[in-house]
Amino acid sequence: MPVVTPLLALIIFVAGAAAGSLGALLGIGGGVFLVPLLNLGLGFPVSASAAISLATVIATSSTVTAAKAGKHLMNFRFGMMLEVATAAGSVLGGLTVQLMSQSHLQQLFGIVTGGVAVLTVARANRRNVILDPNADPGLLGGRFHDEETGATIVYQIKRVPLALGASFIAGNVSSLLGIGGGVIKVPVLNGWCGMPLRAAAATSAFMIGVTATGGAVIYYVSGQLLPAAAAAAVLGVQLGSWSAMHVSPRLPIKVLKLLLASVLGIVAVLMFVRGVR
Amino acid sequence: MSGGDTGLELLIGRVLRAGVTASIVCLTAGLLMLFAVPQVSAWLLQAGIVILILTPSARVVLSIVEYAMARDWTFTLLTSIVLLELIAGAVAAVVFHRRL
């Protein structure tokens, strides 16, 4: 385990900023980039890298949720119902990670990011809109004002058990690998459960705070969360995602998707190869 | 969505923003003092991390109270289960850690 010197703290800060800005640019959390940077680049064990990354995930979720509050994009009821499953998944994941070897975790990270890379290219943006703005969204559905079109969007929720299952797996993977898990939930909520993409993304970002807490608490209690390294990473990710949202020009969605898929593909191969060796 | 949820949404937004801000202040100060005043730094970093981790849980507690006050027992129950799961995880980790 590397000792956190001023230089290393600065490097972690820069790595956090890079991961955070790339994540914000691509619409996913930075964890999927931060964990390989910490593990392969700086020599932290996977569990310590995941713990540091989860701290940044909590900060990002809280910031994003606070910024989106009041816009009705987040579906609180459905999100809080799914949190029952995601928290169970992340707590179980946080406990099983204590029993898993470094190389197995690296292989798992490679497989999950590889799968996500494929999903990114393949996934469709389903609109999932009930056109009549006066339609009943049901107990779990939602209604929000779309800023781009000016229309009122109404949707109903379908396949609740599938959403619960995806949330459980996302929670599990989140704790094991130190990522938020939105890359698993958003495609399922949008593709099969009836949510428009923006509502699915906002609701997932909201839930991720609780998901990451389930894992982070366990890492913290077990003494695997290094405070100075986590502090540098949290500050870096916050700066990176803030600047990406405010400074960068918006790239066309196709370019973004290809960029995301290729970066994820490289990360997947690097982690998997290291895990096999 | 009911009008009651808008109030809850704004309240949750404020709590999360306050938590992150407090945490970032502690973490920044802690890092800056890392090599000048190590003991104060360690304390500030711990405080920053603990505040950060507890912020989403504070949001869960807040939701339990809000749903209970609105007599929405289904969601009072669901949010209470989430809180219990997080607490159970922490307790299990303590037990686990002592054994290993």
What are the salient characteristics of this protein?
heterodimer, A: 277 residues, mainly alpha, two-stranded antiparallel ribbon, 10 helices, 2 strands, globular, B: 100 residues, 89% helix, flat
- Which stretches of chain A are low in confidence, meaning pLDDT under 50 for 5 or more residues running? none
Low-confidence stretches of chain B: none
Order of helices and strands of chain A: HHHHHEEHHHHH
Q: What's the quaternary structure here?
A: heterodimer
| Envelope shape of chain A | globular
What's the average pLDDT of chain B?
89
The total number of structural domains of chain B is 1
**What does the overall shape of chain B look like?**
flat
Q: Which class do the helix and strand fractions of chain B yield?
A: mainly alpha
Largest sheet of chain A: 2 strands, antiparallel
* Fraction of residues in helix of chain B: over 70%
Secondary-structure-based class of chain A equals mainly alpha
Biggest interface, CB < 8 A: A-B, 55 and 52 residues
What's the N-to-C terminus distance of chain A? 20 Å
| Estimated radius of gyration of chain B | 17 Å
Put simply, the count of helices of chain A is: 10
Query: Helix segment count of chain B?
Result: 3
Proportion of β residues of chain A? under 5%
Strands of chain B, total number: 0
| Total number of beta strands of chain A | 2
**What characterizes the major β-sheet of chain B?**
none
